[in-house]
Amino acid sequence: MNKDFTQVGRSVPRKDGPIKVKGEAIYTGDMVLPRMAYGKIKRSPYAHAIIKKIDYSKALEMPGVLAVVTGDEAPNKWGIVPQTANEVALAVGKVRFYNEGVAAVAAIDEETAEAALDLIEVEYEPLPVLTDPFESMKRANEVRIHEDAPENILHSGDQLFGDPDKAFAECTYILEREFSTSYVNHAFLEPHTSLASYDTQSGQLQLWSSTQVPHYLHTQLSIVLEMPMSKIRVTVPAVGGGFGGKGEASSSDFCAALLSRKIGRPVRIVFERSEVFATNKGRHPCHMKVKIGLDKDGYIQAVDFDNTMDGGAYAGWGIVVMFYTASMIHLPYKVPNARANVRRVYTNKPTCGAMRGLGGVQPRFAMECMLDEMAEMIGISPYELKMKNAVESGYRSVSNLHVPHTEYKKCLQTAAERSGYLEKHGKLPFGKGIGLAGGYYISGTAYTLYQSYKPHTTVLLRVDTEGGATLHCAAADIGQGCNTVMAQMAAEALGIRYEDVHVISGDTELGTFDLGSFASRLTYASGVAIKEAAKQINDKLFEVAAGMVGCRADQLEVKDCRFFSKFEPKKTIEWAKVVDVYTNSVGTLTGLGHFSPPRLKGIDLTRGKRVQGANIGHSPTFGFSCQIWEVDVDLETGKIRVDKVTEAGDCGQAVNPMSVDGQVEGSILFAMGQALYEEMKVAPDGKIINASLHDYKVPTAMELPEIDTTIVDSYDPTAPFGVKESGEGPVQPTIPAITNAIYDAIGVRFTDLPITPEKVLKALKEKREKEKSEGK
Amino acid sequence: MYLNNFEYFAPKTPGEALDLVGRMGNKAKVLAGGTDLIIMMKEKMIQPEYLIDINNVKEFKGISYEPGKGAVIGAATKISELEYSPVIRDKYFALHQAAGELGSVQVRTMATIGGNSCHASPAAETPTPLVAFGAKVVISSVSGDRELPLEEFILGNRKNALGEGELLTQFILPEPAPKSASRYWYIGLRDAMEIDAVNMAVNIVLENDGRTVKELTLVMGSVSPRPLVSVEVPGILVGKEFNSELVEKAAQAAAGEAKPISDIRASAEYRREVTAVLARRLLQAAFDAAREV
Amino acid sequence: MKQLIELTINNRVYEVPVSPKDLLADVIRDKVRLTGTKKGCGQGDCGACTVLIDGEPVLSCLTLAIACQEKKIDTIEGLVAEDGQLHPIQQAYVDHGAVQCGFCTPGMILTSKALLDRNPKPSEEEIKRGISGNICRCTGYKKIVEAIFAAGETISTAGVK
Questions:
Q1: A contacts of B193 (beta carbons < 8 Å)
Q2: In this structure, are C32 and C67 located in the same domain?
Q3: Contacts of B192 (CB under 8 A, 6+ apart)
Q4: Would you call C42 and A272 a contact, using CB atoms and an 8 Å cutoff?
Q5: Taking the complete model, does pTM exceed 0.80, yes or no?
């Protein structure tokens, strides 16, 4: 870490803390505009059916109903990935998942809108429902979900790096295992909410939305509504969590906008919790076959990764997630030869998409558990095996991922020491166990979802006597705290205090361009842009300050709201006075900074060949972490109690350590839910049977174990302020660390999720029977 | 998720309440805590024309205890009041435990003991210990009161013995026998906000020797449409000196009696297995506690 | 069908027209326009709509507004002192980083208040149990537990209510 920082590295309370604890933060659903109408969406009772007819005449006759829209009125396809855009605002001709929207109503109040839904008559011709990806591929000739996907596959990819077959032939230890992960939802607390206001006179639309991606939402609205982006303004009020689930447009956005344009009044749509589950975009269930080969000394020689992903009804983020899973096998260990065969399959279920730690969580589960098992094969500690193979700063993977800086080994070491892993592992009484896993995640990302060289983030810093320092950026604070972190970095760069920086974000008109809050990109990306913008401001203020104190500008430094001469500290002047003098003669001072990520090609380094999809995971740097979980298994009921979690993370220089801890602790419980409790359950007819927070079980405070987190000393010299991500990396090790701990406790290796008490009990029984038959 | 239109009544006296219940019959629903009723109305499972809110009738609320006679609990008594009541904790510990495990703090503040039994969910928490205590319910109507063992009041999943015009008004709990103790626990995925996969209550009475089981009731929840009173467990343990062999036999017997179903929360097989575990643990815990009395 | 009722919210009496079927959460948000009370599920499962009625935490999404006449209702907006100072619990949430997206925060703080009013020095286990009906998906609860613990200390030392 950099000891010279005064604003970066401070655990300051977040900017929006006070208004949030007072209940004064405004979320989209809290807004009411004059003449505002209320929208509701009519949903399909079939998971797969032809829409034969929609008759909404009776709904229109109902007093208070203002308008109805159907899919035919806005048939343009949208999608977060333009190459695979296949979603529509409301179903056109066919529904592909249970509760897909078929029509939307606007009425004078929400109750009327809800009642009007019953008056919309829809005639369906049901089609066979495919809920399993393997069945979907098998029956593709007979049942086709999308006309342009004859095999019911969105996309498949094959990547080859080096020569895995040759490498495996020379390996001393080879392990092959199959893993599957469950169908989970983000369960953010604020349901999707959109408020659209279309002005019939100017043709201007403003949409307030609970979104992570104002920019992408902006582009999709432009496509669906056939309006230029310059006529649309997207504004992000406070957002009640996203975790990837608000990382693409929501049908609430389109329906509110379409209805508002139709009636010339503002329209607000707030989803019910059941609609959040119905529209999903949660984590992909993955069915993975993994083969890992080690040489006689335990060094990884090859990884073979096969992944069949259950994508649900539409494309969404699918292709990105798919290639990410392939990319994720190349780190945080050195893998000289690798092959990935991946496919993302359509089923008649709510679409899967981006969810915290996208693409990493599933392969991490498989690989970290397998390395645990392979350590046992060799007869060494999993810690030793992982340390031996861990990447180091400057490493370049065979897929051309470049790691400029890592403290991964320090993470492993710190967590092991603080938990007493080496003393405990393999030595605890039956029923108690300790498990270790590592992980990493991209930071900054290097890829736009459309081919463009446009900078990913632009920051405008404005300095004057009126506003002090104001940072403009259309980034979205979805609760992760980017407004606070951006203010800290801006303050650091300008030499002033965090408290004095104003942040204007979450608005495509007031803020300068930003791609959005996803892929753990924002701290890094905005950091680069902020540094550049601040430099322009400092250059000008230094000149003025130099004149005021009587030295040369290049002799000045700015810190703690003062300019001072490096050589004659007595020559000093307050920052605000310099700003005053500057603006009084020249006027408002601005600085503009951009971030354009490095463009690495996905190349097989051993052959020099470009590999399809391999550049998608490229990133300017990476965050790393290690988690060690200690569990206590009730051998009679199968219930798993987590006693302690020890985490150590490399997030580079922590901008706000308290906020980093919050991200880590949040990640730990988030992923613990997927490991032990959470699963959307789908009936054969495609209906989600637990689409409520009653039966979809996220961790409560009672599930909170003792958590010990350490931010390891780290500074990435290639990164702005030395920073890296901390919001998605920490979810990576959780599931395998728990799974490895359970193995240490009861000698059973679980390969599917969630690991429920029922599965534990069944496995224990099978183990006992097996041991009995083997005469143990 | 809007409720249907209904007419709302908030009687202040038992007479008014019974009169309303009598006059409106099946077109009315009684609003106690609302934590089940309002959800059912939101989901349009029921659309009553009248709602009779009994929360303002103070005679329907509260816990009274008379040494030697037992406790009388008003049907509209909040679960949280049971949870915090010293009498319930001292005399009817299993009910104290069940009350503390029902839903969340908020749900316990709202929900009532009467509602929990009237709703008659197989997974309900409080009926299990109440049946184990041999609780009777008082069913009132304009024409008078009748008493019924709670066991006979709950007829099945969301079915109770209330006739048209009748209202559940009280629970009567007999005085616990000397040298007795009770315990309750449940099996669920999380440690809060759970719908139990299985719950169970044991009420045990020992002879003066502190070893021989004099009387025993074991009641299972969530493994049958209604609270299931074990017939076999008392047969195995009553009159015998408590020992782990008998406990094991009793636990297996309880599991054998359970009639669980498979649903999204757990399979029948798992429920049966953990029924035995709960029985073993609770029999032991209740026995240990009774020895201390 | 609508009738005018009086609701006492944060010590102020509001006259509001309600139908018997109107839920307290909707009345507070849409009619009284105190939008600090949040709706996360509408089914009593998330706790975001928690308000205090006569000091006890209830789920306003499952409570009929008409049934709340003559009761003392407290929402998050009523916690700030007359002079604008944050309540010690609010201050502790800010200082301890117990707020991220903030959507669970109002309900969580009110549940915390009910807990501390009953027991200003709760154990960690009692805090966890006390807030287990309030789902937070961001923080992992750790900083919330720490904030409640710290607020309890402040309240019992300073005697603030």
A1: 697, 700
A2: yes
A3: A700, A701, A702, A703, B104, C129, C132, C133
A4: yes
A5: yes
